[in-house]
Every structure is written in structure tokens, then in C-alpha cells.
Specification:
The structure is a single chain. The chain has a five-stranded mixed beta sheet, with no helix packed on it. A four-stranded antiparallel beta sheet has the order 3-31-30-29, with no helix packed on it. A four-stranded antiparallel beta sheet has the order 4-5-8-9, with no helix packed on it. It contains three helices and 31 strands. It is mostly beta strands and 510 residues long.
Length: 510
């Protein structure tokens, strides 16, 4: 796959891309508040979150020094914990309970040892499989866990049937993802600890109930969208065109591969794939947005300047027939300007650096009706504290990059670059604008800066799960990175909104 970029930064053409964007200012969110907090109890990763893993197996718990053994009572090891995060949550309308998912497992960046070409990501538990849990919010502020289910594929037997179970892996899928290692020594990775790439690699982000007993979630690798059953079996992956070979298991898998996403999505920024996935269950429509603007790293053509863009691509898919998923549209969502999260405006201590546009990202999304997409947007790193907004996008507005007119001019073969012009996002062909690409209309529903300080004081900075609890309330969940930044157990917050997401006469309440 070969992609080229043409873009404008401060009005100057650079390489080959597109761009210029306009964001309609959104009004400030009104008063709101946290009205409930629930904490996930200790959940040992080996034997509980992943029942198929044994705590004493080095491949399963490499670098953990035994700290992941269930009930071991050993001192906390920052790289192996009983504190899984919740990278996505959803409400089961049939029972009023929740489902939640983990991401790829405990990991941390590591620097290359002397003489090595580059560092990568150290996985404390290379055998960890991203997992789904059935959850209930109980009195006393506790999240009750009914069970955990690891995601898996069924592999081909010698007789051609499918039956052998292979659990998904948190390891990267291909060489253009991050470089994987097992554990680390003093923050350094080297050939002695190199881990293999895995065709079943999944960095699971977000979860939605597509229909009873069937779920869909995002994947930072690839990127892809995964569909799986309640027992954890992966039924299908929706992937960018030309990536079928990447996911084709050497032994053969029962999971279907559907290359329905435009090829350009493979150019996503590293570890910034699909994190925001929303479902209209009645219409069996899915909307999914990348976490950030693309920079070409997924296809080996990194241009860091592209990370300064606010333009993020979203797909809309028809999944009424799971055997034949169909791309309906590709839309552009404009993220907030990073200056909206400037520390001076948000009460942060002196000396904290202002977030850059590359720090702004999407984390989860819900469809409150057929065209209203509400997304969690985060505006900084851990040093910036809770810099979060809920932003509503109107899917009925903005240009469709999958339309014949725009597709014919390469909209799905180039990436969108940084904003520099005052009017719209322009597709440039031969130096002349052939059509103007308009982003979706957007409105800020809630800025967490408006919440009482006491409400956000104990929150993790990575609020990655979003679900609708009532017409005027949402649930958000923390991804605590498995406690890597300190021993914390993930929490779920109920936040009351003063502006309803949906008419309050229409829905029930969790």
C-alpha cells in the first residue's frame, strides 16, 4: 500500500495532501455534577480476568516477579496488577447491567538499549487476552463483576473444520505497529526480550452491544473493528483495504475478514486507531472515529506535522447483515483547538506545559439518535489532569469523503493535514480546489472544567468509556493503565447533565 500526502500548513504546501478547516464555535456547557461513583474491586489478571492464564507461567506473566499470582499477597508490581482498566463500557438495555472491556494488557514504553535501532512497548504479560466483563453498579460504591471472558478465535483443524481455540493477544499485529518486547530492565528493551508480532493482536478500545449476544469494539492496531459473541469468540474484523494478509492467520481462522474500510485508514497514527465506537441498534448502524488525526505511521510514511491537524476521520457502516457489512459514509470530525485546553484557562499550576494539538484525542462515543454522535474528547496528558469534554457531532451534516465525487479526487488515498485556511477543508488536485470538504457540525455538551473541583479531584486523566445512563445522565469509566501510574482501581462515574442528550419522555434510566 503506497499513500502520498499533500497538505497545507500556514498556507504553505508540504509533500502531497489536502487541507484547511473551519470549526464553528460551540457554546459553553452548563452546570453539571458527579452523582455516583463505583470502584472496580481487585481482579487478578491471571486466573480471573484471563481464566486461561496460569500465574506461574513465565510467558503469561513475564517480568511480574510473581505479583500477578491470585491472592499472593506480594507487594504491588507496577507492571503486573490486579487493577484492570475499563477502556469501554455499555449499558445492556435488557438487564440494566453493564458490559466493560480491557485493552491490551499491562505495558509501558521502553527505550532501546545501546546500539538498538529503536525502542518499543514492553508487555509484562505477553499472553494476556483483552477481555470483556459483565458488571453491575451496587450500593456502597462497588462494581460487581459477574464474569470475565477473554476474546478468542477458532482455528482450522487438519480436517478443515474449525475448533481449536486461540485467545487474542495484546501484542501488536504487524511491523508498522509498535515494536513489542517482553518485560524490561531498567526501562530498556533489547533483542534479548523481543516478542513476536501476533496475527490475533488486539488493542481493544470501546464496546457496544450490536444486538443481543453480539458486540462490537474498536482496535488501535490496524486499525480495525471487531465483532464478537458473548462467549468471546471473534466473528469478524472490519479492516482497511489491502490489509487482509496482515490478519490472515497462518493456520486459518473462522473469523471473517471484511476489507470495507477505505485504504487511507491504515495511515492512522501509531496507537491511535479506533477508540470511539457507537451503535444505533435499531438501524444496525455503527459510527466509529479514529482517536486522532493520521500521520502516516501505519503505512511507514510518518510526518509528525500532520499531528497538528484537528481533522479526524469517522466511518459510518451498515451492519444489518454481518456477513456483508457496508460502508455508508466517511465523515470529518473537527476536534477542539488545543488552546481550548490551555492550562492558564483551566486552573492548572504554573509551569505545566500547554497541551499541543497532538495531545487531543477521542476515546469513546454513543449515538443518541440516528444522527447525533456524542464523543469523549480528551485534551492533554497525565500532567494536565482531567481535561475532558463531551462533544456532539451531527452525522447528517458535513461532506461524505466516500461519495463518488470526492473519492474520485483521492479523498480516501490521502490524509487530512493541519488547518491553515479560514474556509473549509479543501481537496486539492493540480493546484485547483475541486470541491470543498465540510466537517460535521459540532456542539460542546459538557466541559469537565465546569464540574465542581471536588467532583474531578480523584478522577483518572484517561476517561475512556462512555454510556448513556438516562436522558440527562451519562456513565464514564476510567482506563487506569492497569495501575501503571500508581495503584488505583478503575472507577465508573455517573454524571448528571443539565442539558438532556435525548428527550426525557422517551427513555428509561439505569
Amino acid at each position: 500500500l503506497k499513500l502520498q500526502f499533500l497538505y497545507l500548513i500556514d498556507g504553505r504546501p508540504r509533500m502531497r495532501l489536502t487541507a484547511a478547516v473551519v470549526l464553528c464555535a460551540a457554546g459553553a456547557a452548563g452546570a453539571a455534577g458527579v452523582v455516583g461513583v463505583w470502584s472496580l474491586p481487585p481482579q487478578p489478571l491471571a486466573g480471573v480476568v484471563n481464566p486461561h492464564l496460569h500465574p506461574a507461567t513465565p510467558l503469561d506473566c513475564d517480568g511480574c516477579a510473581g505479583a500477578c499470582a491470585a491472592g499472593s499477597g506480594r507487594a504491588y508490581d507496577a507492571m503486573c496488577t490486579d487493577a484492570p482498566g475499563l477502556s469501554g463500557i455499555d449499558v445492556d438495555p435488557a438487564s440494566g447491567t453493564l458490559v466493560g472491556v480491557t485493552d491490551r494488557g499491562p505495558n509501558a514504553a521502553c527505550a532501546p538499549e545501546e546500539g538498538a535501532p529503536r525502542g518499543g512497548v514492553a508487555f509484562a504479560m505477553p499472553g494476556f487476552a483483552p477481555a470483556m466483563a459483565q458488571l453491575a453498579l451496587e450500593g456502597g460504591g462497588v462494581v460487581r463483576v459477574a464474569n470475565w471472558t477473554g476474546l478468542f478465535e477458532r482455528l482450522r483443524r487438519e480436517d478443515g473444520t474449525f475448533g481449536a481455540r486461540q485467545y487474542a493477544s495484546g501484542l501488536p499485529t504487524k511491523a508498522l505497529d509498535e515494536r513489542p518486547f517482553r518485560g524490561k530492565r531498567g526501562g530498556v528493551c533489547g533483542p534479548w526480550s523481543a516478542a513476536p508480532y501476533h496475527p490475533g493482536g488486539v488493542d481493544l478500545e470501546d464496546v457496544r452491544i450490536l444486538r443481543p449476544g453480539v458486540y462490537i469494539g474498536g482496535d488501535d492496531y490496524g486499525p480495525s473493528l471487531l465483532i464478537w459473541r458473548a462467549d468471546g469468540e471473534i466473528l469478524a474484523r472490519l479492516i482497511p483495504e489491502h490489509l487482509g494478509g496482515t490478519y490472515a492467520h497462518p493456520q486459518g481462522s473462522a473469523a471473517a475478514l471484511h476489507p470495507v474500510l477505505p485504504a487511507i485508514f491504515a495511515a492512522r497514527r501509531g496507537n491511535r486507531g479506533f477508540e470511539a465506537v457507537a451503535v444505533d441498534a435499531a438501524a444496525q448502524t455503527v459510527a466509529a472515529c479514529l482517536e486522532s488525526a493520521m500521520d502516516g505511521s501505519g503505512v511507514g510514511g510518518v510526518d509528525a506535522a500532520l499531528r497538528g491537524s484537528r481533522a479526524v476521520r469517522c466511518v459510518v457502516l451498515d451492519l444489518s447483515d454481518l456477513a456483508r457489512p457496508t460502508l455508508k459514509a466517511v465523515k470529518v470530525a473537527m476536534q477542539s483547538d488545543a488552546r481550548d485546553y490551555a492550562p492558564a484557562e483551566r486552573g492548572l499550576p504554573d509551569g505545566v506545559p500547554a497541551p499541543t494539538q497532538a495531545d487531543v484525542r477521542f476515546s469513546s462515543a454513543v449515538l443518541t439518535d440516528a444522527t447525533s454522535l456524542v464523543v469523549i474528547e480528551r485534551g492533554g496528558g497525565a500532567v494536565h489532569g482531567v481535561q475532558t469534554r463531551l462533544v456532539r457531532y451531527n452525522l447528517a451534516t458535513g461532506s461524505d469523503l466516500a461519495s463518488p465525487a470526492l473519492a474520485a479526487h483521492g479523498c480516501n488515498d490521502v490524509a487530512l493535514g493541519a488547518s491553515g485556511a479560514p474556509r473549509g477543508l479543501e481537496v486539492v488536485e493540480g493546484g485547483a480546489a475541486v470541491e470543498t470538504v465540510r466537517p460535521m457540525d459540532r456542539t460542546v455538551v459538557l466541559d469537565f472544567a465546569a464540574l465542581p473541583r471536588a467532583d474531578v479531584a480523584g478522577m483518572e486523566t484517561k476517561l475512556e468509556g462512555l454510556a448513556v445512563a438516562a436522558c440527562d445522565a451519562v456513565l464514564v469509566s476510567e482506563d487506569n493503565d492497569f495501575g501503571y501510574r500508581g495503584k488505583t482501581y478503575a472507577k465508573v462515574y455517573r454524571i448528571a447533565l443539565d442539558v438532556p442528550l435525548t428527550p426525557c419522555s422517551e427513555g428509561g434510566e439505569l
